[in-house]
Amino acid sequence: MISKTFQEKFNPSQQAAVSFTGQHALILAGAGTGKTRTIIGRAAYLIESGVSPSKIQILTFTKKAANEIVERVRSQFPESTAISLKGSTFHSWCNQLIVKYPNLFGASTYTVIDQDDQLSIMKMVCGEYKEDFGRLRLKPQQLIDLYSFARNTRKNLTESIRILLFKDRKDRETEYEITQQRPYIGNLLKAYQSKKGNSKYLDYDDLLLAVSTQLHQNEEARRILAMDLEHLLVDEMQDTNPLQWELLKPFAQVCRLYCVGDDAQSIYSFRGADFRNVHSFKERVPDSTVLKLNINYRSTQHILDLANWLLARSPIKYDKKLVSNITEGSFPVVMNVSDQWQESSWVAEEILNGFQQDDKFFGDHLVLSRSQYYTKTLQAVFIRKKIPFVTYGGRKFLEAAHIKDVVAVLRILNNPFDEIAWVRFLTFWDGIGDVRASRALGNIVAGDGSRPIGTLVKDALPGQDGEKIGDLIGELELSKGDVGQLVTKTFEAMELGLAYKYRKDWQEKRKADFEVLQLLAKSYGSLGEFIGEGLLDNAANLNKSHVLSGSELSPSEDRDHVIISTIHSAKGLEADTCFVLNVSPKVFPSTRTLHDPEAIEEDRRLLYVALTRAKNRLFITRNIDSIQALTKGDEIINEAKDIPTESYFLSDLPDSLVEQRTYEHTFDKPRDVGTPNTMDLSSGMDFS
Ligand SMILES: Nc1ncnc2c1ncn2[C@@H]1O[C@H](COP(=O)(O)OP(=O)(O)OP(=O)(O)O)[C@@H](O)[C@H]1O
Question: Which atom of ligand 1 lies closest to the CA of 573?
Fold first, then answer.
């Protein structure tokens, strides 16, 4: 029997999706049609039907999304009923599985490394294999990109080299070049791989590979996991790449797969995502059903008309026309501005108007941009006008240099073979440079792990420095069992050094981050978990506090702020009023994609995601000079000339879909008399 509240919360297609009784399902649906609501409803429905919450796992692309979904499910149940429900990113989930079953996955002591660490290792390898490296004209970062691309897309090295380094060319000259370079690249990547293994490092992709390989090969592994897992709920399925798909595939034999996605919102192909993953779901997953949702509850029809128009102009057939259940509302506004300052001032004015006159909160406003860098001007204007804001899509908290300094100590205590952490920690101290550190390092990691780390340091670094650092490490090792206390002690021991190293912005910016780090540390039961998962999570939204970026907000203002986000980080977000910045020629699509039809279409989907975030009011800004450059065609002698008019997404935007405005900021001058007068200085004084 379907309850009344159930009927009120979900429309008939959503109800069918939430209470799906078959084996595996793909919920294919457009923007704002309730995918998130449905996945939350599905988890709640399963719990209500008697499935233990601990046997449901939700997978999303960001920690933020995972937390939000889990919290919303939990809030539907009394007290701690759904406390054991879990939501994670692909990486942190795999990390949890490896920690939970160390024997099964064969990794007990290891350190998860991030992109910076990968680069450091690759640089060491290039230094060691000078001859191979010297024959190539590549940077270490390009080698890392190749390695990661090949693993994520499951392509072989030759194909990966062709695509990444030769723009997928297949002519004879390219073939020759690839044959020449591949052996050297192969040597370097193999050396990188074995260095990683020796130091017991796992990069993000290793986490997925470790789990997926075991599950593919080992029936026992599938059986063990099946005891703990009944339902796997996957959000944003369109963004899964072949490696993630490899991970999901064996789970169809372990539990029931429930995937939710929108092919028109796929914007991660640069990470290897293949939106066709959702198109061939039915063929790939036996015993599966595809269900569709089609009513949009988020945006007004005027906003959707614009989004539909954009998508309909794509050569790809998405078979999607969003229909709103909200009919009234205003037209989207296209604001033509002359420069970024105008654009920023206008956005700020609109937001202040909304706040002061229309009774909106700052939190009702979302500003979207292709890059975070582009919003620097806007941020400056917001700070001046005292508009509170936070930014999404910046650098991750645990990737900041000052945090990494402290985390290095934790990494060493967790894995004494962690060379990167050793170099960072040793060179942190005055008087120890790279050369001395790497000499000491050789001795430190040569041991078998049986001697106390403090003693190892003292032996490897004779003299006062070694004594001091050895004692410190030895003392910190005693707190290894209590992650919160360990972070506090480590910070206290390093504070002076940190304050000196980052003296430019220590007080105003960096110091406060350590309170957050301590808070974060306390929420982890073990050091391994903290290092592994903490690194994978974006702590920028911890307790809703703006950690590294954003204007200076007082705690009381903290909850109400404008969000400035990259479009890539805005998936799943929505707001009453959205500003999409700089939808200008050369930007949508970007000039970098102009020769690649697939990349152009990805840019189109990016704009589509941006437009469909708005509930009631949508404002699009664009640069008037670049528009004029386009329309004047040959007369224009700047570089805009080589942009084909038809490739600009808004080039023939019908007037009926939007309201066009041009920013004309004029100062109201006070009215005055025509002829100059002379000032009478005799008035206002009473001399009597
Ligand atoms: N049946 C419904 N009745 C009322 N409101 C609904 C219903 N379904 C969804 N909504 C509302 O519509 C909005 C969009 O829903 P949701 O975020 O779940 O969509 P989505 O498909 O995940 O969107 P996107 O993929 O674009 O992020 C939300 O504000 C949600 O509360």
Answer: 27
The mean of the pLDDT values for the chain is 84
Ligand 1 midpoint to CA 142 (Å):
40
Domain limits, the chain: 4-104+224-293, 111-199, 323-393+559-634+642-662, 397-541
> CA–CA separation, 423 vs 116, rounded Å?
14
Q: Percentage helix, strand, coil, to 5, in the chain?
A: 55, 15, 30
CA angle 619, 623, 624 (to 5 degrees): 110
- Reading phi first (left if > 0) and then psi (alpha if -120 to 50, else beta), residue 50 is in left
CA-closest residue to ligand 1 atom 27: 572
CB-based pocket (< 6 A), ligand 1: 10-11, 14, 29, 31-37, 262, 265, 297-298, 572, 574, 612
Are 4-104+224-293 and 397-541 in the same CATH fold? no
Pick from 7, 14, 15, 47: nearest CA to 29: 14
Give the residue, by CA position, lying nearest to ligand 1 atom 9: 34
| Cis? peptide before 589, omega within 30° of 0 | yes
Please enumerate in sequence order all residues whose Cβ is within 8 A of that of 669, keeping only pairs 6 or more positions apart, or say none.
none
Reported confidence tier of residue 684, pLDDT bands at 50, 70, 90 = low
Superfamily in which the 323-393+559-634+642-662 domain is placed by CATH: P-loop containing nucleotide triphosphate hydrolases (3.40.50.300)
Residue 4 CA, ligand 1 centroid: distance in Å: 19
The model's pLDDT over 646-660, given as tens digits with 9 standing for 90+, comes to: 588 998 899 999 999
Q: Radius of gyration over alpha carbons of the chain, in Å? A: 28
